[in-house]
Design brief:
About 15% of the residues lie in helices and about 20% in strands. It is α+β, with helices and mostly antiparallel strands and about 100 residues long. The chain has a domain at about 1-40: RNA polymerase-binding protein A (Rubrerythrin, domain 2). It has a four-stranded antiparallel β-sheet with strand order 2-1-4-3, with no helix packed on it. A hairpin with a 6-residue loop joins strand 3 (about 25-30) and strand 4. The longest helix is centred in the middle third of the chain and has 14 residues, at about 50-65. It is rod-shaped. The chain binds zinc ion. Zinc ion (ZN) binds near residues 10, 29 and 31. Zinc ion binds near residues 10, 12, 29 and 31.
Length: about 100
């Protein structure tokens, strides 16, 4: 569910979770109990802390930053792996 921001007439801001079909235009202020109107803000869906959203964020992030390994990490100093079989690549300068 998306998070919506509300602002009351006293100036308090608070966030609340509502489904998109059931979000009210006004809500009771959590600080002073007054009438708070919904504020139009940029959506921050990923700011939710539910496990489902964390899983979605992790899945989306892993598509761009895959953490793929082909072996278990060694206990000693890690040696650079050869990633190419082309002998011409051996002549390229090393960083
Ligand atoms: Zn208030």
């Amino acid at each position: 569910m998306p998070t919506y921001t509300f602002r009351c007439s006293e100036g308090c801001y608070f966030d609340a979770l509502f489904s998109m079909a059931e979000v009210p235009a006004t809500a009771e202020c959590r600080n002073c109990g007054g009438l708070a109107k919904r504020v139009i803000t940029a959506p921050h869906l990923s700011a939710t802390s539910s496990a489902a959203f964390q899983l979605l964020d992790h899945t989306a992030r892993s598509a761009h930053e895959p953490a793929v390994v082909d072996r278990l990490p060694s206990r000693g100093v890690a040696r650079p792996q050869r990633v190419t079989q082309n002998p011409l690549h051996a002549k390229l300068p090393r960083a």
